[in-house]
Amino acid sequence: MLLLCLCLVAITDEVMPSMVGTNGSQDSKPFVIITWDFLNATQNAWKQLSSGGSAVDAVESAGSTCERDQCDHTVGWGGSPDENGETTLDSMIMDGPTLNVGAVAGLRRVKDAISVARRVLENTDHSFLVGEMATEFAKQMGFKEESLDSEWSQKTHNDWKANKCQPNFWLNVMPDPKNSCGPYKQVKRDVPNTGKHLINRENHDTIGIVAMDRNGSLAVGTSTNGLRHAISGRVGDSPIPGAGAYVDQQVGGAAGTGDGDIMMRYLLTYQAVEFMRMGLAPQQAAEETLRRILKRAHRSHIAALVVADKNGQYGLKSYYFYIKLMGIVLQAPRVLTLSEASLTV
Ligand SMILES: *[C@@H]1O[C@H](CO)[C@@H](O)[C@H](O)[C@H]1NC(C)=O
Ligand SMILES: *[C@@H]1O[C@H](CO)[C@@H](O)[C@H](O)[C@H]1NC(C)=O
Ligand SMILES: *[C@@H]1O[C@H](CO)[C@@H](O)[C@H](O)[C@H]1NC(C)=O
């Protein structure tokens, strides 16, 4: 058995999902689990659930809180500028009983990405709106149009340009992206890709949420501002159903965070739900799912999942985080940490 936690973590970073739920009874609903230790988000979701709100209300509330708090500069306005210095937002909500999805990607100049995703969920027959057109939709739905720049995002962008646009995500182009800014042209031969993209908690992240309300309905969601210095137009796994998050009321739900360009190849959250459908417990489902990516990883990746089943099974055994720390928050916030990752292949 090979312990893979250290060899595959790009940065041995701290990951602390938070969770709120009742404890000690057969009936574990309602509850909410989120990736990372964004406590305000967890608490606000809990307020919704404990006052009779729906799972979708809780997911929206957690996401909105992080968008307002600009969690880690990786959720909401004013973070993760792309190559042009612009911040755009990606978000989705999925409803367990109906499998209905509302999602936006590349949303420009509107701060409330997860609330716009909810409008796609509830006010359209569609599932996914993108870019400038998603902005037009949001404006029709009454959202305010405003800049998503912050001093921090502009400084981050200017520093990046001053540093020859390093790091960036170009391959097989000239001039050499390892030491020059664009514009680039494609080259036919393969330029060896020796550079390491620094993917860590600070330059990319997502709030991922799994919630169950009093009636036992499940919902999941995500919100992110993407990957810092990404090529403009890049969309990661977060808003894609089955990739960033997935839920089926008959089984359970899952949400993920990590290197989205890799994670979306594996449809990890769909896979976690399918493993539960086959009879695995939530933690086993999370571990088996992450093994898929770990077995085939060619470079350092980080990937993490929170998973819960339709019975509201939760706790340290019902969700699994590949990286260093786990957290659990009951009605009064509480964080438990797992001292080492334990995923083996
Ligand atoms: C729970 O079910 C009851 C009865 O069907 C309904 O009135 C209520 O709105 C539901 N609550 C949520 C949070 O969905
Ligand atoms: C949490 O919310 C409080 C009250 O809105 C706010 O003052 C605080 O900055 C938030 N915390 C974070 C980490 O954003
Ligand atoms: C639930 O409560 C019991 C008894 O107070 C405690 O030992 C246990 O750690 C709690 N479980 C969780 C998941 O917090």
From TrEMBL:
Organism: Medioppia subpectinata
Keyword match Phosphoprotein: no
Signal peptide: 1-17
Active-site residues, record numbering mapped to chain: 206 (nucleophile)
InterPro entries: Ntn_hydrolases_N (IPR029055), Peptidase_T2 (IPR000246)
Keyword list, A-Z: Signal
Cited Pfam families: Asparaginase_2
PANTHER family linked: L-ASPARAGINASE, N(4)-(BETA-N-ACETYLGLUCOSAMINYL)-L-ASPARAGINASE
Annotated site (Cleavage): 205-206
Family in the record: Belongs to the Ntn-hydrolase family.
GO MF annotation terms: N4-(beta-N-acetylglucosaminyl)-L-asparaginase activity
Binding site for substrate: 234-237, 257-260
Superkingdom per UniProt: Eukaryota
Coiled coil: none
Protein name: Aspartylglucosaminidase
Cellular component, GO annotation: cytoplasm
